[in-house]
Automatic annotation (TrEMBL):
It holds the Pfam family Methyltransf_32. One of its GO terms (molecular function) is rRNA (adenine-N6,N6-)-dimethyltransferase activity. This is Methyltransferase domain-containing protein. It comes from the Eukaryota. Residues 112-259 form the Methyltransferase domain. SUPFAM superfamilies: S-adenosyl-L-methionine-dependent methyltransferases. It comes from Drosophila guanche.
Length: 466
């Protein structure tokens, strides 16, 4: 995740990206439960295209670096601009196997997690050998720290985790799965980490070092596997502030959970949100402030950035597209007939989604209505049916789901760019903050995981240079 080679500085890059995002905000501005509003805003030539497109072409659409032919003019412009702004990654198809052993497996670990810890532990072991202490932020159930210990028994690992139950599980796993000596080398503490946790981390690291006969700690690394939301940003701040920390290796995730600036009057509505930690860099902030048109870097934008990547899209069958389109369309229909003091949630499905989807009774069968205030289930009323009929007159049975899937296709095409904006913004911020603190750093992203298995697959690596 970086800047495409054609751009020579982040400000110019972000300026072009912001311009593009404001032109196509109808694709991502609304949550998909409100996709009828997005479909209404879809230009007619895009609608015509998605109503007629073959499954093969639909599957190829998000791969804009590969094929420019056979698209109507406006879609061609969209794809060419995406190709110009989205860094071309070569990793998608040539995924390299990690050389490390399989991680500990005395207690069952899901396949996705096995893939992540195997590759990340191998990366840490190749890059952090000089670290006397490794601080694992958001250590969860302890999978990563335990796999790291398995690779190299010399590591001293401090795992910090906000959730008490997870800390206890991690301690138990350590006792059950690793040799007794590991309980001395790995310490799990319950701690909600923020940018001011440096003193706490220093204190607990020094204690851990002392317990293992090491009286001086000069070299530490901060690591984190899927350090969600603001945690990965605070980890970067800790890296800059703490002299002993020489490197950081962090894989971020859950951008959509970033904290809002409630203190500054921000709200969690879907149109405009002010986040504490996005945008972060001066470069992106400048571009956003200079944008003359409406721009929506809101919660749905962040959610799009952390959707599945396009890697899996290519193999989607006709039936899968039809089923997904129906589900998305019906969900949005249910959402648009409810009143603002009501909620809808899917019931257990009884039929495949693409069968007989368009009657009001089908909607009633699939979705339960609730009161927003009390959470109690409510009955659907004749007024809901009237609203349903009004709304569903706009699109036929076939058109609604196809357009919903067309919208999903546009989102899949834009996902990488949206994620790049977030990740590259962080990289720029780290460089800007390092320059301000007069710390000499080298920063990069590496794609470490197979995105078909684990879509949040980039590790931010930063090292202090002496
Ligand atoms: C997506 S999970 C990843 C867990 C673990 N690293 C793994 O890969 O198995 C993120 C973890 O970070 C923890 N977490 C989130 N924010 C945190 C914070 N500010 N301080 C400490 N832990 C936090 C969550 O409780 C959760 O266990």
């Amino acid at each position: 995740m970086s800047m495409p080679r054609k751009f020579d500085n982040p400000e110019n890059y972000f300026e072009s990206v912001v311009d593009f995002l404001s032109s196509y905000s109808w694709v991502y501005r609304r949550a998909n439960t409100e996709c009828l509003v997005s479909i209404d805003s879809m230009p007619q030539d895009f609608k015509n295209y998605f109503l007629a497109v073959s499954n093969e072409m639909l599957n190829e659409f998000p791969f804009f670096h590969e094929n420019f032919d056979a698209f109507p003019a406006s879609l061609l412009i969209f794809r060419k601009e995406l190709a110009r702004l989205t860094p071309e990654e070569t990793f998608e198809n040539i995924f390299l196997e990690a050389t490390g052993r399989q991680p500990i497996s005395k207690l069952r670990i899901p396949k996705k997690k096995q893939h992540e810890i195997k590759h990340f532990a191998t990366h840490i072991n190749a890059n952090c050998l000089e670290a006397q202490i490794v601080v694992d932020l958001g250590s969860g159930l302890g999978y990563l720290s335990q796999a790291l210990y398995e690779l190299n028994k010399n590591y001293l690992i401090l795992g910090l985790e906000a959730d008490k139950t997870r800390v206890e599980t991690a301690r138990n796993r350590c006792r059950q799965c690793l040799p007794p000596a590991a309980t001395k080398s790995i310490s799990y503490e319950q701690k909600f980490v923020d940018a001011n946790s440096g003193v706490y981390i220093d204190k607990h690291s020094l204690e851990l070092a002392k317990n293992n006969g090491c009286l001086e700690v000069k070299n530490m690394s901060i690591i984190g596997l899927h350090a969600c939301a603001d945690l990965s940003i605070n980890a970067m701040r800790l890296f800059l502030k703490m002299d002993r920390v020489k490197s950081i290796h962090i894989i971020p995730c859950c951008y959509h959970k970033l904290a809002l600036q409630f203190d500054c009057g921000g709200t969690d509505n879907t149109d405009q949100n002010n986040f504490v930690n996005f945008p972060l860099s001066i470069a992106l902030r400048k571009a956003v402030n200079a944008c003359k048109r409406e721009l929506y870097l809101n919660r749905p934008f962040l959610r799009l950035a952390c959707q599945q990547t396009r890697a899996r899209w290519r193999r989607t069958s006709c039936e899968e597209h039809a089923e997904h389109g129906c589900r998305m369309y019906m969900r949005a229909l249910a959402d648009s007939v409810r009143y603002s003091n009501e909620l809808v949630k899917p019931r257990k499905r009884s039929l495949p989604d693409h069968e007989n989807h368009s009657s009001f009774w089908e909607l009633v069968k699939r979705f339960q209505l609730f009161s927003k205030n009390t959470g109690t289930p409510m009955e659907w009323q004749p007024i809901h049916r009237e609203r349903f009929q009004e709304i569903s007159e706009k699109y036929t049975d076939r058109q609604g789901p196809r357009l919903a899937e067309g919208l999903q296709c546009m989102q899949t095409a834009m996902q990488k760019l949206c994620e790049n904006v977030i990740l590259f913004d962080r990289l720029c911020y780290l460089q800007e903050a390092a320059a301000e603190h007069k710390v000499h750093v080298r920063v990069r992203y590496e794609q470490l995981l197979d995105e078909k298995v684990s879509p949040r697959c980039h590790v931010l690596v930063a090292e202090k240079l002496s």
